[in-house]
Amino acid sequence: MAEAASDTCSLEQLYKVENVKDISKCFAKLHSNINAEFSKFSEQLKDATDRVLELEKGMAHFEQEQLEIKESIIPGVQDEVKAVHNEILALNLWGRKWNLIIHGITGEIKESSEVTRNKVQEFFNTVLKMDPGEVKDINIAACHRIRGSRDATKESIIIRFVDLQQRDGILYRARKLQKGSGFGVMVDLPPELSKLRGKLLKKKSELPPQQQKDAKLKYLQKAPFLQLIVDGHVLASG
């Protein structure tokens, strides 16, 4: 009894078949298997494609949210942070409004506050050319060296006045100090504004001689706090 032909065949068996009928059956089975595998692959590909599309939609939504945060929320928060920062800076500045800083008065190592005060009064008398009686009436709440200089004998002096008008009077006289005198009297500023003042003074020094003469720094109690004024116009500010 002849053995029935198998429904399946290996590649090796394919080359051993003896008639066309057996070859046709092998190819038919192979085609069926390929179609089944292709259908399975197509379904997997569709699932993968659907997942990619969902991920792309999610990413697009995420990017839109990021854009909205960047364009609307973050600027608003930054504005609020800046406003609070400026308010704190204004309060800090207000607390220093009774102060002046004097540069150029030589000192001594571990100089006492009494000696420092006497040197300040001498500065008022001899450098600012103030009347001795006027100097005697100046009410100073505190006066001491600002520590931190490499040369202790060249440390600046900070003075806190009781009377704001007296403080402003000293500042007005100090503006008449000649350039190169070695002395300077400046408004006491928070570190951030002190750096800004340095930048504006540098910009002033780069102006033509006549504009340098007319240029002045304007101090404000609120932002931008400092302005460089030339011929009545704001050249630069904070």
Structure explained in plain terms:
This protein is of the alpha+beta class and 238 residues long. The chain has three domains: 13-96; 98-188, Alpha-Beta Plaits; 190-238, no CATH class. Helix content is 55%, strand content 14%. It is built from seven helices and seven strands, in the order H-H-E-H-H-E-E-H-E-H-H-E-E-E. The protein has helices at residues 11-14, 20-95, 113-126, 132-136, 164-174, 191-205, 209-214; strands at 99-103, 140-145, 157-161, 184-187, 216-219, 226-230, 233-237. It has a four-stranded antiparallel β-sheet, with helices on one face. Strand 5 and strand 6 (226-230) form a beta hairpin. The longest helix has 76 residues, at 20-95. The protein is rod-shaped and about 130 Å long.
Top CATH class of the largest domain? Alpha Beta
> Number of domains in the coordinates?
3
As a percent range, the share of helical residues equals 55-70%
Task: Give the biggest sheet.
Answer: 4 strands, antiparallel
Give the name of the CATH architecture of the largest domain.
2-Layer Sandwich
Q: What is the helix/strand order? A: HHEHHEEHEHHEEE
CATH superfamily membership of the largest domain, which one? L1 transposable element, RRM domain
Strand arrangement across the biggest beta sheet: 2-3-1-4
- Assess the beta-strand content as a share of residues: 5-15%
